[in-house]
Every structure is written in C-alpha cells, then in structure tokens.
Amino acid sequence: MRKVSSWEIFFVPLFFLLIVYPILAILGNVTIDGMVNTFGDPIFWDAVKNTLITAFFAALLGVLMALGFGYFYIFHPGTIIYKIADFMNDLPIALPHTVAGLALLLAFGRNMFGFIGPTGLAFTLIAVMLAMFFVSYPLAARTIASAAEEIDREQINVARTLGDTPPKAYRRVVIPLLGEAIFSGFVLSFSRSLSEFAAVIMFGGNVPGMTQVLASYVFTKVEEGEVSMAVTASAFCILLSLMLVLILRMRGRLHARSA
Amino acid sequence: MRISEKWCDMKNTCRFFGIGGVFLLIGFLLLTAGCTSQQSEQKPLNIYVAAGLKKPMDVVIAKYSNATGVTVIPNYGPSGGLYTQISQGQPCDLYYSADYNLIEKLQNEGKVAEAEKFMKEFVVMTVSKTGKQKGITTAANLTRENIVVAVADPSAPVGVYSENVLKNLGLWDQLNAMGNIKTRPSTVNQVALMVQSDEVDVGFTYSSTAQLYNLTVAEKYGYDLSEEIVFGDAIIKGGNEAGAEAFRDFVRQNSEEFTKYGWELYA
C-alpha cells in the first residue's frame, strides 16, 4: 500500500462534502411527481431545445474568436490589441452577470441597433447566443492560449522560413497542433453557456417557448416555489453536464491512444 | 516486510483520524458560529423583504437601528425566491412578501407565528418615450403591429398580476400569438429599467415602482382585473419572534415612508 499524504487527508473529505454531496442532494430529491410535471411540460422541452442550439453556436463563435486571440498570442503579442484582449479576458468572469445582461441590452438594444428590428438584437435567440458567448468566450480563449504556449516555436519558425505567411503558418502548423485544445475549449464554453441565466434573462428575453433557456427555466421554477419541478430540471442539467464531461474524457483517451 | 505492513496500518489509522478530524473541525466551527449569535445581548434580526420595498425599508431599518441599537439584516429578493428560502428552513425572523398568497402557503406549512395584511398595491401600465410616440394610451393599443411589451416573469408576483390584467382584458392570447411580449424579466425593477432606458414601449409594473423610477403611467388597474394585491408581513416561527414583533410594529408606525411612494395601507 502506498503512503497517504496529508494533502489527501485534507482533500478527500472536503471534496466529497463540498462538491459531490450537493450534487447528490439534487439527484436524491427528484420525485416521480416532479418528473411527470417537468417532462410533460412542453415549455421545458422548448427551453432544452433553445439552450442546446444557442449554446452550440455560442461555443462555436467562442472557439473561432479564441483562435483569433491565439493568432495574436503567437504572432503579435506586443501589439496593443493583444494586450487589451488579454486584459479583457478577465472582465466577463469578474462582472456580475446581471450587469453583463444590462450592458448587452444597452449596447445592442433598439436604442443603438434599432435599424435591425423593433427591439434591436435584444430579446431574440441571437441575443441569447450573444449573452452566452459574452460570458463563455474567455474560457475558450484561455484554453487556446495555454495550449498555444506549449507549441514548439521551432516548428512555426521552420514554416515561416520556408515561406509561409503568419496566417498560413497558423492554419497549417498551429491549428492542427491545437486540435485537442480546440475541442476542450468548445466543450468548456458550451457547458458554461448552459449554466448562464442572469445575462440571458436580461438581454435574451426569457419568453417561455421562444427565448427561455434551461437555466432560466430552473430559476423561474425555484422562484415560483415549484421546487419539485426545479429539482427535476436541475437533475436534467446535471446529467447533461456529466455527459459533456464524459465526452470530453473519452475524446481525451482516444486522442492519447492515437498519439 | 512485516515492519512496512505495520507502518501501513498505522498510516491507515492516521488517515481515518485525519478524515474524522476534518469533519470534527467543520462541526465545531458550525457550532461555535451558532453559539456566538445566540450569546450576543441584542439579537440581530433577519428580515426577508420583497425587492420592491427596498428603498423605504432601508430608511425604516436605519431609523430602527438608531433608536434601539438592534442590528437588522435585510435580505432583499423576489418574494417567491424568499418564500422558497424560508420554506427550506433558512433562518428568517420576519418576512415581507409582495404576494399574500405566499404567506398563506407558509402558514399551511406551519412556519408562521403571526401574519397580517400590510399594504395594497396596484398594477399599472407604463409607457416609454417611444411608447408615447407610438400613441399607446391604453392596453387595447398593445395588439397593434410592432409594439414591444415587457411583462415580468411569473416568478415575480407582479408578473402573475400583470398576466391577470391582460387575461381579464381578453388580450393575453392575442399578444402571445402576435409575439408582442418580447421579454419576461425576472423582477419588477428590471421591467422598470427597460421602460426607463426606452428598450421597450410598454412595461407592466407596480404603481410604487413607476413612481420610484419616474415612469409615465398610462393606465392603473383595479382589483377586478389584477386580483387583490396585498403586501403582507409574517413573523416566522422558531426565530427571534419578540424582536420581529417589535420591528413590525415600528414599520407600521412609520408607514408614511411607504405610502409616499403610492402604496395604500390595507386597513
């Protein structure tokens, strides 16, 4: 038997008490009644559909933007743009999310973007997607940047001396090497998008059946005092997130085997 | 070999005690936290207050603390959320709800020591700058093309009351079919903010909220349309009941702080 360090003694009980136990508490409180009511609620399935679609596109946009950030990180880390982008990466994480929602509403609402429609970009599925993107992009950018750091500069330099322009070297050398990070960046920002509700309620509209997402559905049910439905919907969220984590893990194992 | 086995056993015992130790430590911390709050001479008062009452309530709390030296800890939030917290057993001494039904729900759960109806409130239709330009003066105008309406989410009582008004006026289904209700914010304050910043044409709020945010009121609805809207207070069982009663009476004596924003006393 191996030696047990004091770190393990510190970590194991707190991990189970503070992380695993609350999740089990949700799953343990699911009732048949709650399941019947929730899964029989068409609004719930609309919320699931809206969430999956908008979170998918938010994550897609997040990864594309993160790749753009990675380009600056590798080729132009001295520029002002890079420094601003790097600094701003922390902001959406630190910002209270109702503030983020209000900021987006004032920026893309009809006072500024009225030429698009009667509400500007606000209160549409695009708004939901933008709110999710706003809070999840930094995670993708972080993932891409830390993976880009690992890349051997020699390989990029070789490509450059062989005549590749920076964009070409980025596309042909860097992006293939980032493969795994792109995938985890996508899953990370997708999962972060699933859990966002404050910004989504404020800017997205939160109209049941139209622009409501799963997280705000749960929030609404809690506030309405419909605890059994809230618990069921939360358990659904947890299973969905666990599935994502599993996909991430399996994908990582396959990658390790093929490497 | 044997020595190392014994060493392992010792290690396992150590781990066992270590794990137990951490749990004991946590338990101890929780207990001491509980004790200190009970030992202090003037017990602090935990009050849960509907978010809409924040402005006048802050004033009354400051007055009360000055006069008596009691620390009052307010927790402002949507009434429904506060209800869930109390129902799940979070420590609360006094609850101010924007929806008397929630107090009745707590009474059925056996959580309430004493409850009473406090103030009357009304639903109003407020119009923004653009809403005025579009000539919206009454709810019947809302079914025109391209009108942007904000109705609070049913998680906030004002959302339910506004729905009642629109349903009783026979406009609700039509508005939903047209998609004119573009947003369901989670609090009455968010609705007011959207009207104030002209992001929507029309928003349904309380009469007091409209006054607090300086909004233009187009229509005020009676209880025949919205249902009776009564703000209530409830002393919660098992907490600092005497302190809660004293504070509740103080609030009653200072009701002009509330009535100046448009609330009316219930009786």
Protein model, in words:
The complex is a heterodimer of chains A (259) and B (267). Chain A has a domain at 45-212: MetI-like fold (Orthogonal Bundle), CATH 1.10.3720.10. Helices cover 81% and strands 0% of the residues of chain A. Chain A contains 13 helices and no strands. In chain A, α8 (125-150) packs across α10 (166-195), α8 crosses α11 and α9 (153-161) crosses α10 (166-195). The two termini of chain A are 32 Å apart. By secondary structure, chain B is α/β, with parallel strands linked by helices. Chain B folds into two domains: 45-121 and 229-265, D-Maltodextrin-Binding Protein, domain 2 (3-Layer(aba) Sandwich), CATH 3.40.190; 123-226, D-Maltodextrin-Binding Protein, domain 2. Chain B is built from twelve helices and eleven strands. Chain B has helices spanning 2-39, 54-68, 79-87, 100-108, 129-133, 157-168, 172-178, 188-196, 207-212, 223-226, 241-253, 256-259, and strands spanning 45-50, 72-77, 94-97, 112-120, 123-127, 149-150, 181-183, 202-206, 216-221, 230-236, 264-265. In chain B, the strands form two sheets. A six-stranded mixed beta sheet of chain B has the order 2-1-3-10-4-11. In chain B, β1, α2 and β2 form a beta-alpha-beta unit. The longest helix of chain B is centred in the N-terminal third of the chain and has 38 residues, at 2-39. Chain B starts with a helix and ends with a strand. Mean pLDDT of chain B is 85; it is low at 1-8 and 34-40. Chain A binds chain B through residues 1, 3-4, 6, 8-10, 12-14, 17, 102, 105-106, 109-111, 118-120, 122-123, 201-202, 205-208, 210, 212, 216, 219-225, 227, and chain B through 8, 11-12, 14-15, 18-19, 22-23, 26, 78, 80-81, 83-84, 87-88, 102, 105, 130, 146, 148, 153-156, 179, 181-186, 190, 193-194, 197-200.
